[in-house]
Amino acid sequence: MSEMNPGEVTSDDRLMAALAYIFAPLVPIIFLFLEDKKNRPFIKAHNGQALVMGVIMIIITPIIAAFTFGCGGILWLLMLWWGYKAYKGEYINIPVVTDFVKNQGW
C-alpha cells in the first residue's frame, strides 16, 4: 500500500471537517488533542475556523435571539451549511474569522 500524500484530502478528512462545524466548539477541541487529526492540513484549516465560530456562536446567539425573538438559530444554520461545504471538500473563507485563524498560525 502506498503512503498517503499529506496534501491529499481523504473522505475521512472531509467528514472530520464537517463534524467540526456541526458540533462546534466541542469537536474542534477534541481534534486539538488528536495528533493524527490536527496535523492534516484540510482538517486543521476547518478545525480552527469551526472552533472560533463555535465560541462566537455561544456568545452571540443568545444576544441575537433575545433581540430578534429567537432568530439566533440562523448562525447554527450557517454552521450546517459550512459543514456541508467542508464535506464536499471545499475550503471555506469566513471573512474575519479565516484571516484571524491564519494570523494565529492555526
Total separate domains = 1
Helix content: over 70%
Give the count of helical stretches: 6
The main pleated sheet reads as: none
Number of strands: 0
Q: Report Rg.
A: 14 Å
* Structural class by sheet pairing and helices: mainly alpha
Shape: globular
The portion of residues forming beta strands comes to under 5%
The span between the termini is: 31 Å
Sketch the topology as an H/E string, one letter per element: HHHHHH
Description:
By secondary structure, the protein is an all-alpha fold. The protein has one domain. Helix content is 71%, strand content 0%. Helix 1 runs antiparallel to helix 5 (74-87), helix 2 (26-33) runs antiparallel to helix 4 (41-68) and helix 4 (41-68) packs across helix 6. The protein is globular and about 45 Å long. The model has no long low-confidence stretch (mean pLDDT 87).
Please provide a brief summary of the model.
Helices cover 71% and strands 0% of the residues. It is an all-alpha fold.
